[in-house]
From TrEMBL:
Molecular function via GO: ATP binding; dTMP kinase activity
Gene: tmk
EC number of the protein: 2.7.4.9
Domain Thymidylate kinase-like: 14-207
Protein name, UniProt field: Thymidylate kinase
Record family assignment: Belongs to the thymidylate kinase family.
Higher taxonomy: Bacteria, Pseudomonadati, Pseudomonadota, Alphaproteobacteria, Sphingomonadales
Lineage top rank: taxon: Bacteria
Annotated catalysed reactions: dTMP + ATP = dTDP + ADP
Length: 221
């Protein structure tokens, strides 16, 4: 730019239900963008800051506290405030590409559609406390929760991770979460890429890479 300031970066978020394959897609996207010499920051929610990691342990532990749904929403939002103010916004201002595992779309799906909290309340908190920051591109990995939950439980067991509090909720909850994600996609088609995540992982990752690069205008001519 003529005044010497960096152009704003691009904010890409990968969303989806438990076991949809977000981690593998983020790893594949990260490798492709890094190989092309893009300045990339990879982060996740809840997490991304020291405070966020502590809240992640509190919120996701299957052996942890039973949170009231309102408290759960506020803790998720608190982690996001720290994450945006200290990590995401500075990276975008510096012109970096930020690739994030979950963002406010997950709150709308899990605490909104899943828990039944008012969407207007969630959006109001995001507007007033998180600077109304939204992704430039959302990659939604869509899969039947019965398939996704089986994958996620196997992953948690293999890795001996105590992050299964949401996996332990009933299938009706997870069906509502999936519906919440798809409803968001329907209302934001310009910025959302819906990818069939029931397919083999290599196909899902390749599809995600192709669609994201096309949206970023980075595909070779």
């Amino acid at each position: 730019m003529a005044d010497g300031r960096a152009a704003r970066g691009r904010f890409i978020v990968v969303e989806g239900g438990d076991g949809s394959g977000k981690g593998g897609v983020i790893e594949a996207l990260s490798a492709r963008l890094t190989a092309a010499d893009h300045d990339l920051l990879v982060t996740r929610e809840p997490g991304g800051t020291d405070e966020g990691l502590k809240l992640r342990e509190l919120l996701l532990s299957a052996e942890g506290a039973v949170w009231d749904q309102g408290a759960e929403l506020l803790l998720m939002t608190a982690a996001r405030i720290q994450h945006v103010k200290r990590v995401i916004a500075p990276a975008l201002a510096a012109g970096r590409i930020v690739l994030c595992d979950r963002f406010v779309g997950s709150t709308l799906a899990y605490q909104g559609a899943g828990r039944g909290i008012s969407e207007s309340l969630i959006r109001g908190l995001h507007r007033d406390l998180v600077d109304d920051l939204w992704p430039d591109i959302t990659v939604l990995l869509d899969v039947d929760p019965r398939v996704g939950l089986a994958r996620s439980r196997a992953r948690l067991s293999d890795a001996e991770l105590d992050e299964g509090r949401f996996e332990d909720l009933d299938i009706g909850f997870h069906d509502r979460v999936r519906g919440g994600f798809l409803d968001q996609a329907q209302h934001d088609v310009e910025r959302t890429l819906v990818i069939d995540a029931a397919r083999p992982a290599d196909q899902v990752r390749a599809d995600a890479i192709t669609q994201v690069l096309a949206r970023l205008d980075l595909l070779p001519s």
